[in-house]
Amino acid sequence: MKIILLQDVNKLGQKDDTVIVKDGYGSNYLIPKGYAIAATPSAKKMHAENLKQRAHKEEKIKVEAQAMAAKLGVINLVVGAKTSTSGKIFGSVNTIQIAEALKEKGFDIDRKSISLPEDQIKEVGKYKAVIKLHREVRVEVGFEIVAE
To answer: Cα torsion for 77, 80, 84, 89, to the nearest 10°?
Structure first.
């Protein structure tokens, strides 16, 4: 059975892929759950048109993301944290604090799109965070942790 995936399915394929699966898996699981549709000729035509329209919208979003990446690339953030006399941070700095510092600078970035170099930053110093603005657009933002 040939199907068109409507969302990512683990170990099967990505959204918008056309894949071949066993009849029972497609008709009893994927289609009723809304993960896929049968790849009939009319469904293929509709899918192709949707992809064409989405590509146009995606290009516009990508250009906007690249413009924001250019602005974010030159910015340096300062994040304050409570520290001991030796420079160790009580707790750690996380993506929420980076998102708040970006919001103060005028950039509304979701904390889930920010990734830090290490799992937990526990010392004062300079670091870089990677922000994913689009599937293909990522930017590194430098930030410094200072004692409050």
So the answer is: -70
CA distance 64 to 61: 5
Delineate the domains of the chain, giving CATH numbers in brackets: 2-60 (3.40.5.10), 68-147 (3.10.430.100)
Q: Rounded distance, CA 44 to CA 28, Å?
A: 21
CB 15 within 8 A of CB 5: yes
Give the tens place of pLDDT for each residue, 49-75: 988 888 888 889 899 989 999 988 888
State which amino acid sits at residue 91: G
Alpha-carbon distance of 130 to 108, in angstroms, equals 15
pLDDT for res 119 = 63
**DSSP strand pairing (114-115 vs 125-132):** antiparallel
Calpha distance 3→20 (Å, rounded)? 6
